[in-house]
Structures are given as C-alpha cells and as structure tokens.
Amino acid sequence: MSNLFDLLKGSRVENCWRHLIAHRLPFIVTFQIGLMALAYLSSYYIRFEGLIPQQYYHTMFLTLPVFLLVQGLVFYYHDLYHGLWRYVGFADLQNILRATLLSMVALIVLEFFTSPFTGKIPRSIFVLDALLVVALIGGCRMIMRLLRERYIPAGNRTRVMLVGPVETLEPLLREMHNPHSQYLPMVVVDPDPSFRGYRVYDVPIVSGIRQMAQVVQRHQVQEIIFGWPNAPLDELNEIIGECKRFQLRYKIIPSLAEVLGGHYRLTDVRDIELEDLLPRPPIYIDHEEVSNFLKDKVILVSGGGGSIGSELCRQVAKFSPRTLVILERAENFLYETEIDLKRRFPELAIEALVASINDGIGLYQLLQHYRPDLVFHAAAYKHVPLMERCPIEAAYNNILGTRNLVKAALAAKVERFVMISTDKAVNPTSVMGVSKRIAEKYVQSCNDKTSTRFITTRFGNVLGSAGSVIPILKEQLARGGPLTITHPEMERFLMTIPESVQLVLQAAYMGKGNDVFIFNMGFSVKILDLAEKLILLAGKTPGKDVEISYVGLRPGEKLYEELFVDDEQREPTEHPMIIRAIGPKESGKVWEEHLDEIQELVHKRDVNGLIAKFKTIVPNYTPQLQDIG
Q1: Which of 76, 229, 260, 561 suits a disulfide with 423, CB 3.0-4.6 Å?
Q2: DSSP class per residue in 356-403
C-alpha cells in the first residue's frame, strides 16, 4: 500500500490525481449511488437468505430507482457529497445516520401509495437497507481516512509524547489526528494509573514518570508536549530531568486562564519557558479594588520606558486613568512605549515626556502642571557592575534624583508616591544596592511632611528585564554558547515583569504611608540550574552540546540576595503575596542633612568621600569597592 502512495507522488501521476480530486463531485455522487443500490439489493438477499422469491424480483427492480432517487436527494440536502473523506469524523457519521433515517421514513410513506403498482415491500427491507447504507457509505469514508493516516508517510511530522490527563489532551489529540498536522502523537503519559494500557485515537496510554525514558526511546520521540496546566512544578522538573539525555524539545499548553473556554488547539502549544519552571506561587490581585483606586486619576510613571516602567504603564492603562504621564529620558524607549500604548488604548490620554529626575526645577514645573494623584517612581540606574565603576552617577540619579521627584510630589500635593526598590538594597555590597537603600530610607522619612503617602515596594530580579540574566543566557545559547555564570552557588529570587507590576499596583492600593512592602517571590533559584534548564529546553545537553563557564563574581555582586533588613519586623498583610516590613522610624530632618552632604560630595566628584558617607549612614553596607581616585 505504501508503494501505491509512493507511486502517486510521482509528478505526472500526482498531477492526474490532483485533477481528479478537483473534479471529484461526479465520481462521489456516482460512487455513493452505487453503494445505495448495493445496499438495497443486498437487503433482499439477506432478508431471504439468498433465495429471493420470484415475485420479489419484480418489486425489487421496480422500486430500486425510487429508493436511489429519494436517498440521493436526501443525501444531497444534507450536503453529503462535498465532504472531504480523509477528514471524516463523528459529526459526518451523525449526518449520514440522520439522512438515512429521514430517507427511510420518506420511503415508507411513499411505499403506501406505490405498492398497488410495484408490489408490497417487506418492512424488514427498509431497516436492512438503512443499516447497510450507513455501514457502506460511512465505512468507505472511515476506510479512506484510515488508509491516509496509516500509509501516507509522516514526512516532516514531529513525533511527540504528550504528558497530562487524557481529558485535557483529547482536543489536541483530535487535531493531531489530521494527517497534515505538524505533530505525530506516539504516546500519552497520563498521571492517572487507571488509564494505563488503554488507547485514545489509537495512541497508547502509559502511566508513571519512571517509564518515560524507555518510552521516549521505544517510540523515537522528538518532542514532549505538556498538556497539564496545573501540573505540580516538581513533576515538570522531574520529567525534564528524566528525559534530559535524549536531547528533546519541550512544549506546553497554556493554562486554562490563557485560552478562552479551555479549548486547546495546536496554535496554543508553545515552547516551555523558564518562567513555567520557577518555584513561586501564582500571582493574583484584587482587580475590582485596584480598578476603583486607579480609575479617572492622573498617574505619573518615572522611568516609563524601562522594563518595569513600561509594564507599569501598560497595566495602569487597563484601569482607565484620566491621564497617564510618562517620564523617560531615553527618547527611543519612550517613543516605543508611547506607540505601543496608543495602539492598545487609543482612547487613553497619554502624555509622553522626555524628562530627567535629575532636573529638580523641571520636575517641579511638570508636576505643578499635571497635578498627578499618584506617582510611580521606577527611574533608576540598576546595573551593579556599571554603578561600581560610576558611584557618582549612582548617587546623582538613584539618590538625588529620587529626592527631586519627592520634593516635586510634595509641592504638587500628590496623594501617593510609590517607589520601586530592589532586594540589592538589603545588606548592600554594591554601590547600586546602597544607593537604593538610602533612597528607601529617605522616602520613608518623608511621610510626616504632608498628607502624601510614601510607599516602597521591594522585590528581587525580574525575568526578561533589559540586561538581566535570562535574556543574556538566551542570547549566548542562540550563539551556541558557552553560557557564562558568575558562580555555581549564586542564587536569586525571580519573578516575571507582569507579576511584579501587578503586586506593585496592589501595594499602592494597600499602602497607608511609611510602608515597605516585600513581595513573596517563592524560593531563591540557583543561576546554574537556570542555565542547565535553558539548555535542556532547547533540546541540548549541558556540558556536551553547550558548555557552561564560570567567570567569577563581578564587583558588588553577592552570592545570595535577601529581602529583609535585620532591624525590620515582618507583618502579614491582607494579600498573601505581600509582606509589610516595619523598620525604625526615620527622621526627615536627619535624612535631608545626609542628602545635602551627598549632594555636596557629588558636586565635588569625591568618590572616596561618597563611599565613606555611604558606610556611615548605612552601617551594614560592606563595599567591595576599594580606593578610587
């Protein structure tokens, strides 16, 4: 049979075959009418066990044209001559059954009027004829589909193993059953052992992660598709670990929330990203309360072209503020953010302004003009090694720039000021970390000055932000490696940008003033583990196909990050993902004096004096930076 299809793939024969398919309607009509005639004649043969009485021969041949005409017209009415047999399914069989029963009823009624001329037809003939019509016409279509699926070569189809509950995978398997699908399902691994040994769409079902390695080998699996949106994270990691030596690619079906109605299609299958494998709890916010909080307000975002700032703008825009004011000094990033927001939210009033938080007078005038109700302060220098080399700029931007924005917000009587901070501000070892810690303390010290509520949010690394570890590793992987990490024991808390921004919005709504909110980021993750998983997800083997090299800790970097300062008490909030850190009360007057001194040192370009000042006002700052002239 496979030789026949190989022959049909020859150019001349294939052209004839395509021409025949394009003009197949007369052939299909003739063929189905022939099957109806065969069914009617065979029903007499079966009814009389091969010995048809002479008087029924006359009745059989006289009524045959009537049967063919009625059945042919009813089948035409049900559009049963235009279906593609190679895609026949349960719905087509239902349609055939419906048309057959309707034609049987019509023939019984018609026979009441024609019997004086043609002779009486035994009632069993109608039933037998209907059964044979369904069996012959439906059976031929199913055989055609079976032949195409069984004997047409798979070509470039990818042999896949599907992992997950059968009821979740069923729509996907049904679509893969199409011979033109890019995937060829070889085996299903169901977590429920009760399905073991059964088959679905003729695909065998196995159970148990321990069997997966041998299943992959036996069926020559090329990819694994996880159709298990709520799978425990340790199960996913164990499956990937079990099959890592086979150089497979891994894909996943989105969660039910991502696909409307929970109906999956092949287009919903995507590559597994590292985000899917991170040990962190699911994120949610109180959308109704946050919506009421942000609706019809003037909201300003500093650093609105950056990774966090631009996502803040996108999520704020969903809650229909009156005006969204975006401050950014990198004009290209600002332009891209503005274009994206205007495309997504054409009715939103957007003011995208090139501005710097280092311009105190300009900020004052700008906030006096727009009078924002809420300020999100996301503008900051964040790259640790760069700031180690440029401590003056770190202080000028992260500390003094924050003060400029705070003073402008106070003068404009802003309702709430939300500062975005980092876990690197906790027990800092870097210039970037200590500059953010000082900015935190200064913001906290401002709560007693007016009615403005000052709120700080502190979280760890965000996946996908510009210059962060994951994009760098992906770029290195795309070049073939090696993947460079600083130390095999380095760990980080990780969260996606949209998740972190959702919690920022929730914290802004919850803040009462003098709040430092820390986000529950799950467990810290080894960067080495991330690098290995990234290689595995690309279908390669760490150390064999792609090397991992260690470059040593960069200036200012720590092996482990922390989320709480030693003198901070932890207090739960109404949101399980957000913890309030309560530290000692800060004096506004004292911190103004500290920042005046920092400003003087910045103006003098006195790096060593600046580092000494940092150590004085943040005693747990342990710089790796030595004497810089």
Answers
A1: 561
A2: -TT-HHHHHHHHHHH--SEEEE------HHHHHH-HHHHIIIIIIHHH
Proportion of the chain above pLDDT 70, given as a percent: 77
What is the Cα–Cα distance from 432 to 416, expressed in whole angstroms? Answer: 25
For residue 589, indicate whether it is catalytic. no
Q: Are 203 and 179 in contact (CB under 8 A)?
A: no
Please state the rounded mean pLDDT for residues 501-508. Answer: 89
Q: Phi and psi for 57 in degrees, rounded to 5?
A: -60, -45
- pTM (2 decimals)? 0.62
Q: What is the pLDDT of residues 600-617, one digit of tens each?
A: 999 999 999 999 999 999
- Spatial contact of 461 and 530, defined as CB atoms under 8 Å apart: no
Least confident of 2-11, 158-167, 310-319: 2-11
Answer whether residue 394 shows pLDDT above 90: yes
- Give the best-scoring range by mean pLDDT among 279-288, 373-382, 545-554: 373-382
Which residue intervals of 372-420 are DSSP H helices? 384-389, 391-394, 401-411
The residue type of 22 is: A
Residue from 251, 382, 424, 540 carrying the catalytic annotation: 424
Determine if the peptide bond prior to 482 is cis (ω within 30°): yes
The helix (run of H) or strand (run of E) holding residue 207 is none
pLDDT of residue 342: 94
**Using an 8 Å Cβ cutoff, are 207 and 193 in contact?**
yes
Give Cα separations from 367 to 312, 353, 379, 428, 575 (angstroms): 19, 12, 16, 32, 31
Pairing of strands 323-328, 298-302: parallel
Question: What pLDDT score does 480 carry?
Answer: 78
Q: Which H, E and C letters describe 155-172, residue by residue?
A: CCCEEEEEECCHHHHHHH
Close Cβ partners of 492 (under 8 Å, ≥ 6 residues apart): 460, 461, 469, 524, 525, 527, 561
Rounded mean pLDDT, 202-229: 76
Distance of alpha carbon 152 from alpha carbon 17, whole angstroms: 15
Who contacts 329 (Cβ-Cβ below 8 Å, separation ≥6)?
Answer: 354, 355, 356
Alpha helices by DSSP H, listed for 119-165, are 123-133, 139-151
Tell me the pLDDT tens digit for each residue of 453-464. 999 998 877 665
